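Notes, Module 5: Reading structure tokens.

Key idea: the token line is not a picture. It is a compressed description, and you learn to read it the same way you learned to read a sequence, by spotting repeated patterns. We will look at two proteins. The first is printed below with its tokens.
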Amino acid sequence: MRRILVPVLALLAVAGPAAAETRYLAYDAADRITQALTRGVTLEADRGLFGAISVRRIISTSQRGAADIRRGGPGEVRGVLPAGSSERTVYHITPEGDGRPLSRALCPGSDEVWLVAGRVKLGHPLTLHAVGRWPDGAYRHCVQLTYNWRGEWAMPPAGGADDSGAPVGR
């Protein structure tokens, strides 16, 4: 049994990253607060061998701009979410490129910002929580962003507000 298990695990370790595919998942703002801040977003994500989706970039669907996000963050981020929140996956917004302006828009006055998401699933709504760390070291919940599934892009959206080539939900 061990002779079979070791090669299978080795194959899965190599095949996992190789089988990952990049997806562009589009969402529309579902409420007034979300629409005022982002209108809509597209998530550049990797879909792994077993179907798990890991987000690596957030792109403004209707405006120019994109920010890299990295999975992980301090436990204090989850500790300040509103009661009853089921979202648990923490992503750090990197300050490079449009990351700093996005962080300022979501959590004005904070030093660092994280997004906390639930499990990303095709065809399902998405909730993101922005959490910031202030100069005094305190972590605070900034805003809850709620999105409706729009569809999947074949490639990243082009800049500008023209969405005539917008995705159709699958």
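Here is the second protein, with the sequence above and the tokens below, as before.
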Amino acid sequence: MLNDPWTFLLLREALLGRRTFAEFRDRLGIATDVLSARLASLVEHGIMEKIPYRQPGQRTRDAYALTPAGEELKLVVAALQQWGDEHLPSAKPLKALPFVNGSASRVRVSFVEESGTPVEPAQVEFAPVPPPPVSEE
């Protein structure tokens, strides 16, 4: 589901406020069949939801809004962008940056202990989680 470049581009556009099929299509230049399939997959996986809307004189259509789970992907998108900025700098200007709502203050993604203390990436390790004990009933 998140292994397709179009999905990440759709997420970026949704985070930038795009909501309609036409906005996604026009902004990305994506084929309509591919766009339909990707939006359906995002809805199916609970990342976006359909919201009916109607412009005056038009038929009812669906807009797409991020669900709470989709909103949480801001962290993932920001982390990928931050990593790319630091390790794969590009001469192309960025299309979007993460800021605190209503301010010019940029935000960064970082590891934080449950207590709120920042942790350097070099101090973080991944470890296997032991399987839960088998109950004998």
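Summary for the second protein:
- The chain has a mean pLDDT of 91.
- Helices lie at 5-15, 21-28, 32-44, 68-87.
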